[in-house]
Amino acid sequence: MEALQIIILVYLLYLIKLTYNELRKTKVEVGMPEQEFFTFREYMRKDQEILSASAEDYMEMIYRLSEETGFTRVNDLAAALNVQPPSVTKMIQKLADVHLLKYEKYGVIMLEPGGVKLGKTLLNRHNLIERFLSVLDIKDGLLESTEKMEHTISNEILLGLRDLTDFFDEYPEIKEQFLAFRRGKIKWTEP
Ligand code: FE2
Predict the structure, then answer these.
(1) What distance in angstroms lies between residue 52's CA and the mean position of ligand 1's atoms?
(2) Does domain 32-155 have CATH number 1.10.10.10?
(3) Gap between the Cα atoms of 94 and 99, Å rounded
(4) Containing H/E element for 110?
(5) Taking the domains of the chain in order of start, what are their residue ranges?
(6) How far is the CA of 5 from the centre of ligand 1 (A)?
(7) What DSSP element (H or E) covers 81?
(8) Residue 171 Cα to ligand 1 middle (Å)
(9) CA of 80 to the centre of ligand 1 (A)
């Protein structure tokens, strides 16, 4: 009897290990890759006080705009951020001073390797928060809320949001149960 219990226990441990490995694999495939998340943690630790929220917006947008071509221009950036070109020039000079980008002739902006890493990290953070808010079915002001949250969210909370959205992606039937639960609740509590 005792031997049988041990066999069952070993088998259960084996099953737990298999499930754990599967979940880990899924997390890497579905969400922010581990390597990028590590970069994000590094960024949060070292540079958070250096870059203002506005500087983060610039870096994220420069990364978006130059993702395909490898560069962007002051005018395009000004239009994308809805600010005046002189304000862009000012900020660009600051970011060039800390070696995140190069500001070249004719308004051409090119990210330095560190800037590319940071830009990608910031874009990942943005996308993660937006994904999370979408799970909550937030439609009005989705972008605005994402923009506000991204500058204040902690590393730990971001990690939690990543895991939760990955979990819902992996188990859509549970996500559906959650959404049905919410729909019932909203109806119930509405005046
Ligand atoms: Fe953003």
Answers:
(1) 13
(2) yes
(3) 9
(4) strand 108-111
(5) 32-155
(6) 54
(7) helix 74-81
(8) 27
(9) 12
CA of 132 to the centre of ligand 1 (A): 14
- Distance, CA 53 to ligand 1 centroid (Å)? 10
Sheet containing 108-111: give its strands across. 72-73, 108-111, 101-103
The mean pLDDT value of the chain amounts to 83
pLDDT digits (tens, 9 = 90+) for 121-140: 999 999 999 999 999 989 89
The model's pTM: 0.71
Q: Which residues of the chain have pLDDT under 70?
A: 1, 4, 7-50, 187-191
Distance 175 CA to ligand 1 centre (A): 26
pLDDT tens digits, residue range 134-177?
A: 999 898 999 999 999 999 998 899 999 999 999 999 999 999 99
